[in-house]
Amino acid sequence: MADAGDGRRGVRLTERQRLAWLRLIRSDNVGPATFRDLINHFGSAERAIEHLPELSRRGGARADIRIATEAEAERELETAEKFGAVFIGIGEPEYPSALRMIDGAPPLLAATGDLSITAKPSVGMVGSRNASISGMKFAGRIAREVGAAGYSIVSGLARGIDAAAHQASLETGTIAAFAGGLDQPYPPENLELYARIRDGAGLAISEMPMGWEPRARDFPRRNRLIAGIALGVIVVEAALRSGSLITARRANNFGRLVFAVPGSPLDPRAGGTNMLIREGAILTTGAGDVLEALSPISRIEPDANPIIEEPDDEGRPPWSPPEENDRARVIGALGPSPVDVDDIIRHTELPAQTIHYILLELDLAGRLHRHPGGMVSLDFSADS
User: Fold this and answer.
1) What was the pLDDT predicted at 324?
2) Is 177 strand, coil or helix?
3) CA 42/CA 118 separation, integer angstroms
4) Which residues are 86's β-sheet partners?
């Protein structure tokens, strides 16, 4: 077990493992859940990579799966190093403890800045990009007071409330979650703020490759990082169709606390926050509301966090791929509506290991959709 020097413990990746992990997560159809299942089944990223073509073929893929090459992974590692960034594995001490606990946590995070900030419990703050002066002032005040109480503030570096939250917590610790690569900050107007975060008591993180320009569909992924890192998320000024509500709902799904600042019914920017309060979010009029609610849960026991690690291969029982009729039974049990994996096991009466292996095949062939809560469905468009 490795130690980060501040009491946090974890399993340190070797450089060879880090390279293999990066290759695996950058290969086609390999998301965080699939990555975890591959490691659990094959014991290492290197061995999983060897089996990707066969798994994809058995799952019904019509074309060869693209596997990230060693040269591509080495280039990304070199690019990150030149930029001053590192890749943190999910089991390593510096990985954010709360994020490690969510379903589908990223196995690798690119990070630049002060890694010691991840030792602090975090509070998320999101809200309107077109924020009012009073909204930004209030967000800054809460961020400053919550930060002074020992929490880091995590947000998305967007204009408006995000920027106000980062500015107010530069001295106490702030984390910026990116939708694109760490070398592709968005929006450009916050470049100076990004530099201050990297050079001060701040950290920037991303699960996307270096050089990746953020697209609209990447921002919900970033919102998931904010909700996963934080013990609670504060929403300040959000319209009814605001992306901040996605973050709030993600936080609620992860079992985090959701705080909402009320606003005038006449202000469209308060429509989303007022709705969250009606739905059960904690009405927030100051930092005291946040600190009081978080006090009982602000300590996370490191030993309680699940860790992906590569086990010793000694003594692993031999494994044979599923029979074709088993595969047909599983595919027959799936449909376009999400179902629980446990229900598939009960319905088919097949061993759990067999079910998970077949789901891996379908996933790598691009024929499986994974949903929150461990639910899965079949992608019929891949068969047309």
Assistant:
1) 87
2) strand
3) 30
4) 111
pLDDT at position 373 is 79
In this prediction, residues 202-231 reach a mean pLDDT of: 96
**What letter would DSSP give residue 42?**
H
CATH of the domain spanning 324-383: 1.10.10.10
Q: How far apart are CA 18 and CA 12, in angstroms?
A: 9
Class of domain 120-174+217-299: alpha beta
Which residue, chain included where needed, has tokens 């994809």?
Answer: 56
% of the chain surpassing 90 pLDDT: 77
213-216, long-range: CB < 8 A, 24+ apart: 213/180, 213/181, 213/184, 214/178, 214/179, 214/180, 214/184, 214/186, 215/179
Q: Is there a shared CATH topology between the 120-174+217-299 domain and the 324-383 domain?
A: no
> For 295-312, what is each residue's pLDDT tens digit?
988 764 444 445 566 655
CA 194, chain centre distance (Å)? 20
Phi, psi of 199 (to 5 degrees): -90, -15
DSSP state string for 92-111: STTS-HHHHTSTT--SEEEE
Could you read off the pLDDT of 40-74 as tens digits, one per residue?
A: 999 999 999 999 999 999 999 889 999 999 999 99
Which pTM does this prediction carry? 0.88
3-state SS class at 271: helix
CA distance from start to end of the chain: 49
Q: Which pLDDT does position 304 carry in this prediction?
A: 46
CA distance 157 to 126: 10
User: pLDDT averaged over the chain?
Assistant: 91
Domain spans in the chain, listed from the N-terminal domain onward: 120-174+217-299, 324-383
Nearest to 380 by CA among 335, 317, 314, 344: 335
For tokens 């080495």, what's the residue? 74
Residue 42 identity: F
